[in-house]
Specification:
It is a single chain. By secondary structure, the protein is of the alpha/beta class. The chain has a single domain, classed as Alpha-Beta Barrel (TIM Barrel). It is 38% helix and 15% strand. The strands form 2 sheets. It has a 7-stranded parallel beta sheet with strand order 3-4-5-6-7-8-9, covered by helices on one side. It has a two-stranded antiparallel ribbon with strand order 1-2. The longest helix is centred in the middle third of the chain and has 15 residues.
């Protein structure tokens, strides 16, 4: 059994069964998530190694690069192996390194989806996620556009990202939402209420920035102590905690290094004791 298989599985939308440890393809781009990577061959190798290790969900977005991440995924892996789910997102624009203005206008989302179809070299996107609500556009208009694209056969399943409970409820009144991607980690649990809704209703929850542990990872801190007890890194403990935290949790750690990728994947085999989980739960 691969290390990824030790994470268990999750079924999205009734037909996409994936392991609960994916790969986030943001960091295979250039500095500031802008432009091509410093070494294209390394980025290609990371993507291929992720699949070799058993990863069957890769998360990306048209804004990563922009376009660079999706194009690298296609160059590395197309034609995609059976069972590999490519999840992408639309709703952000890029005006420079580190700049992410939101754009949830229907015309932009349509163009973004069409661009992702082309860059990923697919006729239908497995999981298409609205990257973030746009405060200048009614949320129902943005989500409604994804519903239209789904009805047209360009999207299989719809997900949302960076949402409140109220926004998730609104989205679900318009389209069948199968996943939520919000920031959630040891040091930021502000989306706990959204996670609770996902647990209640069986939606996948993709925590972004999953490796962050903040002050908890300082030398002598609780994460450091537990990491030493497992001969592991703080990042591995952060991932192990997320996997144990909820059966709908599907972390998507990203990296541009095969060594770091293998380290992240190995975290799926870590098993924290009840006492360790309690200490981490109480450490926030």
């Amino acid at each position: 059994m691969s290390a990824v298989a030790a994470s268990g599985t999750l079924i999205l939308g009734g037909d996409l069964e994936v392991h609960r440890l994916g790969f986030g393809a943001m960091r295979i781009t250039g500095t500031g998530v802008w432009g091509p990577p410093a070494d294209r061959d390394v980025a290609i190798a990371v993507l291929r190694r992720a699949v070799e290790l058993g990863v069957d969900l890769i998360d990306t977005a048209d804004s990563y690069g922009p376009h660079v991440s999706e194009q690298l995924i296609a160059d590395a892996l197309h034609p995609y192996p059976d069972g590999l789910v490519i999840a992408t997102k639309g709703g952000l624009e890029r005006t420079g390194p580190g700049q992410w203005p939101r754009n949830g206008r229907p015309d932009h989302l349509r163009a973004a989806c069409e661009g992702s179809l082309k860059d990923l070299q697919v006729d239908r996107i497995d999981l298409y996620q609205l990257h973030a609500p746009d405060p200048d556009v009614p949320y129902a208009e943005s989500v409604g556009t994804l519903k239209e694209l789904q009805d047209e056969g360009k999207i299989n399943h719809v997900g949302v990202s960076n949402v409140s409970v109220e926004q998730l409820d609104e989205a679900r009144s318009i389209v069948d939402v199968v996943s939520v991607q919000n920031r959630f980690n040891l040091s930021d649990r502000s989306s706990a209420e959204v996670l609770a809704v996902c647990e209640r209703d069986g939606l996948g929850f993709f925590p972004w920035f999953p490796l962050a542990a903040g002050e908890l990872a300082r030398p002598g801190g609780v994460v450091d102590e537990i990491a030493q007890a497992h001969d592991a890194t703080p990042g591995q403990i952060a991932l192990a905690w997320l996997l144990a935290r909820s059966p709908v949790m599907l972390p998507i750690p990203g990296t541009g290094s095969t060594g770091h990728l293998e380290e992240n994947v190995a975290a799926a085999e870590l098993r924290l004791s009840d006492d360790q989980m309690e200490r981490l739960d109480d450490a926030a």
